[in-house]
Design a protein that fits this description.
Elements: E1 4-11, H1 27-33, H2 48-55, E2 60-61, E3 64-72, E4 91-95, H3 101-113, E5 117-121, H4 123-127, H5 129-133, E6 138-141, H6 144-156, E7 164-166, E8 194-195, E9 198-199, H7 210-214, E10 218-219, H8 222-231, E11 239-241, H9 252-261, E12 266-269, H10 272-277, H11 279-287, E13 290-297, E14 305-306, E15 309-310, H12 311-320, E16 324-331, H13 338-354, E17 359-364, H14 372-377, H15 403-417, H16 420-427, H17 433-455
Parallel strand pairs: 1-3, 1-4, 4-5, 5-6, 6-7, 8-11, 11-12, 12-13, 13-16, 16-17
Antiparallel strand pairs: 2-3, 9-10, 14-15
Helix pairs in contact: 8-9, 9-11, 13-15, 16-17
Amino acid sequence: MPEQFKVELIFPVERKVEHHIEASQPSIIRQVLLPQHAKKRSMSTPPLGLLRLATFTPEEVEGRKIVLSIRDDVVNQIHPQEWDKGTKPDLVGISCTTAASERAAYLTAEALRRDIQVVMGGPHTSVDTDSALETGAAVVKGPGELIWPEILHSAVNGGLKNQVYEKKESNHLGGTTLPPRSFFNAEDYFSTNILSAGEGCPYQCPFCSTKLVKGAYQGRDVKDVSAEIDQFQHDDGMVIVTDDNFFMHPNVGDIMEHLGKKGHTWYASASSKLADKKPDLIRLAGKNGCRSLFLGIDNLEGLPKNNNVDYGRLIERIRQCGMTPAIGFVLGLGDPTKEGLQEEADSIKRFITKFRIAMVHLSSSVPYPGTQEYQLKKDRINKPPSQYDTQGQVVYRPKHLSAEEFNEIYFRLCKDLYAIPNILWRLSSIPGMREKMELFFYNLSRWRHVKNNFQK
């Protein structure tokens, strides 16, 4: 039997993220009013990127058997002392977001102190390789699956270095079907039925680094996507499509119909401009099990109609097709004045109330590395990455108003919209009692998260 080489892939927890259902829904309420969630331990979803690495992991490297495990720090906290008790891996791979970068650095230091090789990848390392290199880890820039076999060979030979590893390829999504979700316990997550039909985005929104990190949109082969859907179990939750713009996939209609054929309910995101131009896709989504369609709005000028999109018509069309429109707003892009920021907040409140948007994600601008917002505000950032939270206090010095004034406007907007009378008014657009209850607690959990951020 070949000697083993243990690889532990880690998804580190971000600061104070409120994932656990218990934080917002008492057990008795969950069991009586939301029995479908009674056994779920969290509202999070498993780390899809690490599952993709598992797909590219060979059984053996240099005559050593690769023993792979995936650990999610979000649902089961990792204690480095465990590595002193006979379960020490040979290689730790860490997938790092900006908000989790400090936790990732801590886990890296603890692993290196125990002579465990470490490689760090993920969206943060792709846009801020310098800070990742400072941890002492080997650093992957770009899609990790492209360079993963090389990383493994170097690690098995003890030659992994504190340098940037990068391999560019025009299309790295072909011919892969993710393995079954046996790496994860379904009860730890809201759903383990996570689907990525493609990656990237054609748009360069000022608050988002997706295009920089992953490039323009690439769709996976529809046969691979369908084969992955065939693995999903209905008991493991609704299907969450992770594409930033699902409607961009050239065969999106075929994928929708396959989801419908398998009897799945699902949730997806789409560009409002593309959704408005493709009413046939909205109808097809509703016909094939889509329960909610997320649309992001970052330009408030001229609401409810801008970017040549009639949002009132689009929202009504989504509802007529049996889906709940979910809307995301980003407050404070650019450098608004106090009056401009207040006007923006008032416009958001009027829009959400007028169209009774039951599922709302209100974000304040966070200048993540790699974004246009970062380039504009990088010299004024005054909070560490662990405090980056789109539902938290401003992490930079605003140019034309104080941080206190910015925070007050954002907090008051959230307080008004997540007040119970406002929630109930917006829920009047939802026909079913079960979905009303789900969205009622969704709104309460959003408000609780905001409040916690402002009480610290």
